[in-house]
Design goal:
42% of the residues lie in helices and 21% in strands. It is elongated.
């Protein structure tokens, strides 16, 4: 009489999450074989979701509450050479993520979390909050090292000769967001004795640069922000 082979025991949700975690480890190690220690967040999330589908694991976000407020400030309109008001919506709240075993929906794990987002439209603020919250929840839950999150990534790129000088902060032009943020910081410090123009001139003097903010590099803009949020010498 032929003995029937014993069927493997179904995995519970904890065991399935461990298998997903192992996949992430392998993925990172494979990338090392090509001379990189870290991979982009988008690549890792794709790998995580593929394994979730394979094992039958669901991740359900549940928003518990929400608060929102407005943040009003002024930015310098470089095209029209004048200040203009700007309003951002800030959305925050409590939520939880629930890992569910699709083979046994009663087998689940609930994890409390929070979300927050800031945009010039309240629906975009809420949407971006959920998008980035999910991304970073997965990254931190599985302890995933990524190129944009880990400070060692920059050193690794140097060791492997992967840095493009044109993209280096010393040469890449500052973004509009950086310049708008600097302008907002400067605007808050305007007084009867210190006009915006005077503050900008003092900032450039402290930085040791003569060019206009629109010509600043990423590195120079970062230096400006550090000076403003500290104090003028």
């Amino acid at each position: 009489m032929t003995k029937t082979a014993e069927q493997p025991k179904p995995l519970n949700v904890y065991q399935k999450l461990v298998e997903i975690r192992k996949t992430v480890d392998v993925f990172v190690k494979d990338s090392q074989g090509y001379g990189y220690r870290y991979v982009s967040g988008a690549q890792v999330l794709k790998k995580i979701r593929e394994k979730m589908d394979e094992l039958g694991v669901l991740l359900v976000p549940i928003v518990l509450n929400q608060t929102h407020s407005t943040f009003n400030y002024t930015v310098w309109d470089r095209e029209n050479k004048r200040e203009r008001p700007k309003t951002d919506f800030v959305v925050t709240g409590d939520m939880k993520y629930v890992w569910i075993n699709a083979d046994d929906p009663s087998d689940r794990i609930e994890i409390p979390w929070q979300y927050m987002g800031q945009q010039d439209d309240i629906s975009k603020a809420f949407g971006s909050a959920l998008t980035y919250t999910e991304r970073y929840f997965l990254m931190k839950f599985f302890s995933v090292p990524t190129d944009e999150d880990d400070p060692d990534a920059r050193d690794t790129a140097k060791q492997n000769g992967k840095i493009d000088k044109k993209e280096n902060g010393k040469n890449k032009k500052a973004s509009k967001n950086q310049l708008d943020y600097i302008d907002a910081l400067i605007s808050r410090r305007v007084t009867a004795d210190w006009t915006k123009e005077m503050l900008y001139e003092k900032l450039k003097e402290t930085m040791g640069v003569d060019k206009e903010p629109s010509e600043w590099t990423v590195e120079e803009a970062s230096k400006a922000i550090s000076i403003i949020t500290g104090r003028f010498e």
